[in-house]
Amino acid sequence: MVRSNAVWGIDVGNCSLKAMRCYVEDSDPTKLIADAIDYIEYPMILTQSGADAEELIRNALKEFLSRNNIKNDKIAISIAGQNGLVRFIKLPPIDPKKIPDIVRYEAKQQIPFDLNEVIWDYQRLGRTDDGSGFPLEVEIGLFAMKRDQVFHILEPYEDVDIPVDYVQLAPLALYNYMMVDEMRDLPSMDEYDPENPPPYVVVLSMGTDATDLILTNGFRVWQRNLPIGGNHFTKALMKELKLTFAKADHLKRNLTTSQDKVAVLKAMQPVFNNFQNEIQRSLGYHSSLDPNAQYDRVIALGSAMKLTGLTKYLSQNLGIHVALGTSFAGLDTSLLADSAIVKENLPSYGICYGLCLQGVKRATVRTNLLPNEIRTARIINSKKPWAVAAISLMMLGAAVSFGAHVGIQASVDPKAWQSVESAAQGLSSTASECTAKVTELEEGMTSVHKIGKNLIGNVEKRLLWLELMRGINECLPVPPPQDPRENPTSESIRNREELHVVNIEAQPLDDYETSQWLEKMLKERWLQMPQGLVSEEEAGEGESSEAEEPSSEELFAKFFGSGDGEETEDFSASDGEEGTEEAPKRWLISVSGYHFHNGQSLELERADFVRNTFIRNLEEKTFPIPRAATLSLLPGTEPRTEGEDGEEVSPSETTPVVVSGEEVVTMADLGVRYPVLVNPGNSVRTTIQNPYLLPDPNTPNLSGMNAARPGSRLLEAENALTLEEQGKIEVDRFDFVVHFIWEPKQPTERERIRKAKAEAERLAAEEAAAEEGSEEMGDEESEE
Asked: C-alpha dihedral over 351, 355, 356, 361, to 10 degrees?
């Protein structure tokens, strides 16, 4: 008989060690055969007072090795369910490639420890897909355990040289057994109806201190650890009948031969009730998760479930048939030698059976909590013989190669190469001298090129301030001329739409100073965040009072971090030369002035008049300016001319070209950004000399040499005159200060930006035309 893929399933409980060896035949891979079984009971229960659990397990494993040969067999061990963490997560229909990333995120949320402190694995359960490639009703089983606990459990196996290949939680091993033995007649995926699912089968595996409860209908699975085990019945007998632990345990195991069976059952009745209540509460909670759940039967596993009357009591109180698991339908046990051990302890081997199924690749849940460090170490150990052989071959090859080279070297006279080496050194020296000379010439050319740039930059830069002044003047409102035949009144002066500028200041700004100015303008609400610079998330945060204010660096990045995609080349930059300074790239321009356009009868007055005229013009108005006469050396920006043979040539290749005329620009084209009215106040009532007053011959001239002096009759005469007779009027004066940022843009830069935008518009138009043409062709083909 040929055996392959033999595996030992080892279940180390608190009371005994159980092991089963299974394999599959090459002739029938679907048939699982058990050919060895072992049951080793400890002298003391591991949780009993005074018991050395590690030593007891180690001695049991040594006894197991003395009885059985595990060479070349795989080893799968179980870990009690209460020591691990099991979570089932439902995911929406998603691309299967994204499931690992989502599961890792869910693991961080579900596992209450750092992922580096645990060993975890997951598996996708439930239905696969509907043919579209996206899984339906994806349920993920997430399983984890503390790393130090796993290594602690593996330590006795390492001490006795048992190489563990699989580490699985006991409830999952039982689930694998249920899927093979108890869920054989499941409907297909196409016939599965979530509203009318198959009935659930419940497995109760009672251990010494706890019981694993597993429910599954073949498509869904749920498990819970019940805090009641066989020891609870023993402790109840100790308490009620005043017995020692050993006597109580013996009485529990031999209840059928007890003389006072009624008293023993009465002593254990509270534990019966608590156990039944825990099961009922678990089933009730699961029914709240799955309202369509129905429970077909309960399978009882574990030595403690053989307690007389326990299965009958549970059947009567739960209303579900409870049967002791006395056989495994999918396992061939005909080769087992000791049939008495099999018959007596078969209910305790459900976990071993499930572990063997995973070892022969027939399990539904295939997760493995074996640490990666151990897997890697075993892979390395398995590769060591091959590595030694490879290194030996490499050393042999190196020795042969070394011997060959030594023979060749011995046949070569070093003196024969001295003349060649001297010639090579001389050639290398000549090459180094030529390289140094080329470097010197390149540095000289670079210096000349910088001088040319500075010359051109100075020609263009002298126009920047003139263009700025021209732009400011163009943005001021222009009132109609005063009629010389009429004397102006306070009302006519108030109705004139004009601004009087008294001062223009310029202050250079670096990036930090600019961000401080922005922060102050926004804080005082003189400047609003432009809509194009506010994302949807920030707009939502701005509605709440707890929105975090951006830092100075973030403000600067929002307002100045992105531009038109063109880099401004500063022709006056010194590039490290002495005697030159780099010109400021940004200025704060402050325009101070006043106006008399104030009054309740006016639609716009005071600050609104400044915003609606001067500031709006700074943002929107277009106006012509003289095109700069300049010599361009920038590649790609100088205009092209025709040579004698009709071909286009660059001006730098022939003679300088002067470009003149006019260009229509906005203040933004000149580099003006973010105009704002600073600290607007209220108007002030004041008296001014009428600038448009016509002289009246009947009014005495009180100016010049005849000006009134204190105590003179002229002063008395002047005081006797009205304001109108004195040539003065009362008006409401509004003082204003307007700030804006100016980043000077030279004419060549504006021309380059203009050409880039025109080229982008041309390409967009061509793409739109091409798309329109393809749509028309498609329509014609469809009509045909």
From this structure: 140
Q: Pairing relation of β-strands 211-216 and 221-226?
A: antiparallel
Q: Is 559 helix (H, G, I), strand (E, B) or coil?
A: helix
Mean pLDDT per 10-residue segment, the chain (784 residues): 72 90 84 88 85 91 92 91 86 82 87 89 69 63 90 92 92 90 79 83 90 89 90 89 86 82 88 92 91 90 86 90 85 76 77 91 90 86 86 90 78 73 89 93 88 70 87 90 71 86 93 86 79 56 54 72 45 41 82 88 82 92 78 44 48 42 88 91 84 57 48 52 69 93 88 89 90 78 70
pLDDT at 722: 61
Whose CA is closest to 583, among 444, 742, 471? 742
Q: Residue 711's pLDDT is what?
A: 52
Closest-CA residue to 64 (of 3, 7, 12, 6): 12
CA atoms in the 13 A half-sphere facing the CB of 429: 5
Amino acid at 131: G
Q: E-assigned strands of 458-572? A: 500-508
pLDDT in tens, 579-638: 445 678 899 999 999 998 887 767 778 889 999 999 999 999 999 988 765 444 444 444
Token couple for 739:
């700030």
At 87, give phi and psi (nearest 5°). Answer: -135, 140
> How far is CA 299 from its chain centroid?
47
Contact 732, 685 (CB under 8 A): yes
Instruction: Name the burial class of residue 203, with classes exposed (0-12), middle (13-18) and buried (19+) by CB atoms within 10 angstroms of its CB.
Output: buried
Within 13 Å, how many C-alpha atoms sit on residue 625's CB side?
A: 25
Distance in angstroms (rounded) separating the CA atoms of residues 784 and 782: 5
Q: What is the 3-state secondary structure (H, E, C) of 322-339?
A: EEECCCCCCEECCCCCCH
Q: Tell me the C-alpha to C-alpha distance, in Å, between residue 327 and each of 353, 360, 664.
A: 11, 20, 96
Q: Does residue 599 come out as left (phi exceeding 0), alpha (psi in the -120 to 50 range) or beta?
A: left
Question: Which residue has 């400890």 as its token pair?
Answer: 42
Half-sphere exposure of 572 (CA within 13 A, CB side): 15
Q: Residue 502: what are its φ and ψ, rounded to 5°? A: -110, -15
Strands (E), 465-518: 500-508
| Distance separating alpha carbons of residues 172 and 222, to the nearest angstrom | 10
| Amino acid letter, 182 | E
Q: Is 89 exposed, middle or buried (0-12, 13-18, 19+ CB in 10 A)?
A: middle
Which pTM was predicted? 0.51
Residue 165: name the closest of 27, 304, 369 by CA.
Answer: 369
Main-chain dihedrals φ then ψ at residue 350, nearest 5 degrees? -65, -40
